[in-house]
Model the fold of this input.
Amino acid sequence: MRVLSGIQPSGRLHIGNFFGAMRPQLELQAEHECFYFIADYHSLTSNPAPAEVAQRITDVAIDYLALGLDPEKTVFWRQSDVPEVTELTWLLSCITPMGLLQRCTSFKDKVAQGLSPNHGLFAYPVLQAADILIFNSNLVPVGADQKQHIEVTRDIAIRFNNNYGEILTLPKEHIIESVAVVPGLDGRKMSKSYDNTIEIFEPEAGIKKKIMKIVTDSTPVEDAKDPDNCNVFALLKLVASAEELSEWENRYKNGGMGYGEAKKRLAELIIDYFKPYREKRVELASNIGYINEVLENGAKRAKAVAAETLAKARKAVGLGVQ
Ligand code: ADP
Ligand code: TRP
Done:
């Protein structure tokens, strides 16, 4: 079973990304052949400053390696190091109905927010389809927000195969049933667009400060509190042992506990949870040569697969010497 997923290099990763997407993706390495890449072509649709592009890619690569991506097992590369994918994008574009892309909600949402869309943003799902199809992927683990893009991929693959023969493998989506949505400091979904995140690798003092600011209700210390409606408790669930969690649950329900106490413990637990990864990250960040080597090796392995699918697809549509 080949598992494939892409990660946009669009900012520092937060603990919502970790518990909601990265950890489940990394766990799949134990049982499957995983292909994970940094979707730098996709990130250009938001026109990042050129000086920031390379740094963001390196940061995401270091984060993934620090958090347990095993480059011996998993093929890990920069999307733009395998440009074959853009050629397949063109072949797929020519059989993709405009209406299919016009119906994509992530595009429609961005337009509704007032963003003036470029063609790259409109064509984004076709590039994503090419990413998936060029590597004959069977399973694509993504958050629920990406479900429609996987459906579009299958639709495009079916059209291509109907027109030109059975060339492309149909993937299945694997919607990551995460530990529910991780709340941010203000209680909304943790997201870099809401500025309510706890970044995985921000300095420990910053993590403590942010956690003390998590929004809670104003129940007095002595009163009973509802753990199921508390942002602090929702985060404790991610990092506390089952035993400790049930102790906190009792303390919430019995009253006599202030939220400040729970927040202090939450900060300790989050810091402890990520400590080994943080150490690993420091080590990796001092060895950029190694990071580049991992990505280049990954690109070589990825390219071998991509070139083969692309050659079949070119031939099938009638290009090149037949
Ligand atoms: P952001 O909302 O910060 O822009 P992205 O949309 O880039 O994050 O998310 C990348 C991945 O992380 C997606 O697969 C998404 O499902 C997951 N993710 C992001 N935020 C959360 C959250 N608060 N809880 C659970 N999963 C999340
Ligand atoms: N669109 C995905 C996201 O924003 C990133 C992505 C690009 C991707 N290509 C992919 C995910 C291929 C899965 C498969 O999260």
User: Anything to note?
Assistant: The first helix runs from residue 15 to 27. The chain has two domains: 2-181+288-317, 202-282. The mean pLDDT is 95. Residues 8, 16-17, 20-21, 142-143, 145, 178, 181-182, 189-193 surround adenosine-5'-diphosphate (ligand 1) (CB under 6 Å).
